[in-house]
């Protein structure tokens, strides 16, 4: 009986260990960079290096939401030696982080990047073969990008070598362009783009419109005029409102960003996430900005001025002004709203104001945003709407929305189960 008990106990322990191993990426600890490379060579495995900083919010999002997922862990633990490396220095750094200070300096000099998160992939010989910059919205997106590191035909180092050797085939250039964007090779992207578009007879094909959407961020980019002048056709490929969104963002960054921020800088992190730095300019010359827009982009001038005013109010943290500006914008341009835009405005008031009048206005936006959505499409809106209801004293209605969200997600989203618990207890939820 004792032997049988030990066998059962051992088996249970093994199952528990395997279950633990399956959950999330297993990062190496206690090894130097040299030792990581030695281990990779010995085991004939690639290296995945997560380069993060303590101040990087997208880094934290990835570490909290993507890395712990079971499917992600199984893929990375099978194929890579995984290491997470902190690329900034703080007073709270633990010994494990301090031991990597010299290695981090060497990595900075060798690979020269300043955007975070950055994900570097090395072959078993310790040679950099692929990079992924910026956060991903989903585990599937992140794994798809990472799988290219294992494929010699998709590794950026290999693709770049083929380009330098003279490969100018259209399909190859399109693949290289997407990879160069993922690797943020700023020195080569313009050259590849020019080479690709130079051999295209029709820029309005689905593949070309998709490529244009990827590389267009400035009014001087060759794809800007294509999207500006072919909105309806582009949206059939890119999705409703996407071409206008790209055009408006490019114009905003060109004209408004330098005016609304002092020495403003926009840093993109991928996954739709960006941070704009620089002090807010409190004395904006709106007349001058309108003249520029009327001159260069007359068909978009009025709408962009309206958007700029609500953005400026947001940056000033002037919530009455922001609410008025959003209401004014919605009264004229609600048809042009991109998905999630209205929910974002409502969430801004939820997080920043306790004024009941402003919260009620934001609630009306959140309710409007939910209209026409079904199933999992409603999740983000339900979270904002339920919180606004709760914050405006509509507790019972708020709880019903949270319960609806729990039913949609099957109880798998802890944010809603925790939210329901707090509402039932009458605790603060925002």
Q: What this model shows, in words?
A:
The protein is α+β, with helices and mostly antiparallel strands and 430 residues long. It folds into 3 domains: 23-150, Glutaredoxin, CATH 3.40.30; 236-338, no CATH class; 341-430. The protein has 22 helices and 6 strands. The chain has helices at 2-22, 33-43, 57-66, 70-79, 95-98, 101-111, 139-147, 156-164, 170-182, 189-198, 206-215, 222-229, 231-238, 242-260, 286-296, 301-316, 319-333, 341-352, 356-370, 379-391, 395-409, 414-425, and strands at 46-52, 80-86, 118-122, 128-133, 265-270, 273-277. A 4-stranded mixed sheet has the order 2-1-3-4. Strands 5-6 form a two-stranded antiparallel ribbon. Strand 5 and strand 6 form a beta hairpin. It is globular and about 65 Å long. The termini are far apart. 29% of the residues are buried. The model is unreliable at 1-22 (pLDDT under 50).
């Amino acid at each position: 009986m004792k032997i049988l008990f030990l066998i059962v106990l051992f088996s249970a322990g093994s199952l528990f260990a395997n279950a633990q191993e399956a959950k999330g990426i297993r990062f190496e600890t206690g090894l130097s960079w040299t030792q990581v490379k030695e281990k990779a060579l010995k085991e004939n495995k690639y290296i995945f290096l997560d380069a993060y900083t303590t101040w990087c919010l997208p880094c934290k999002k990835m570490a909290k939401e993507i890395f712990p997922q079971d499917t992600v862990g199984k893929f990375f633990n099978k194929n890579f030696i995984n290491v997470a490396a902190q690329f900034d220095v703080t007073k709270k750094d633990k010994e494990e982080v301090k031991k990597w200070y010299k290695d981090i300096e060497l990595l900075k000099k060798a690979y020269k990047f300043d955007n975070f998160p950055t994900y570097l992939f090395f072959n078993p010989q310790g040679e950099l073969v692929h990079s992924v910059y910026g956060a991903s919205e989903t585990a599937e997106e992140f794994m798809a990008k990472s799988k290219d590191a294992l494929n010699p035909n998709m590794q950026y180092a290999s693709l770049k070598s083929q380009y330098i050797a003279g490969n100018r085939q259209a399909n190859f250039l399109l693949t290289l362009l997407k990879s160069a964007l993922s690797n943020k090779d700023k020195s080569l992207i313009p050259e590849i783009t020019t080479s690709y578009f130079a051999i295209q007879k029709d820029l309005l094909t689905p593949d070309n419109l998709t490529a244009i959407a990827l590389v267009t961020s400035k009014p001087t980019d060759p794809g800007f005029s294509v999207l500006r002048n072919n909105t309806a056709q582009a949206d059939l490929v890119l999705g409703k409102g996407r071409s206008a969104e790209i055009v408006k963002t490019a114009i905003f960054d060109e004209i408004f960003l330098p005016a609304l921020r002092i020495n403003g800088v926009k840093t993109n992190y991928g996954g739709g996430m960006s941070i704009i730095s620089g002090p807010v300019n409190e004395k904006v010359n709106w007349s001058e900005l309108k003249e520029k827009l009327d001159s260069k982009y007359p068909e978009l001038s009025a709408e962009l001025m309206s958007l700029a005013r609500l953005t400026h109010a947001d940056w000033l943290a002037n919530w009455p002004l922001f609410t008025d500006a959003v209401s004014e914008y919605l009264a004229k341009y609600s048809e042009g709203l991109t998905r999630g835009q209205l929910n974002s405005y409502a969430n801004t008031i939820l997080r920043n104001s306790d004024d009941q009048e402003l919260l009620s206005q934001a609630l009306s936006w959140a309710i409007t945003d939910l209209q026409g959505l079904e199933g999992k499409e409603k999740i983000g809106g339900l979270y904002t709407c339920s919180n606004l209801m709760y914050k405006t004293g509509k507790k019972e209605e708020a709880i019903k929305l949270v319960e609806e969200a729990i039913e949609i997600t099957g109880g798998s989203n802890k944010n809603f189960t925790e939210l329901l618990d707090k509402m039932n207890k009458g605790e603060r939820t925002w």
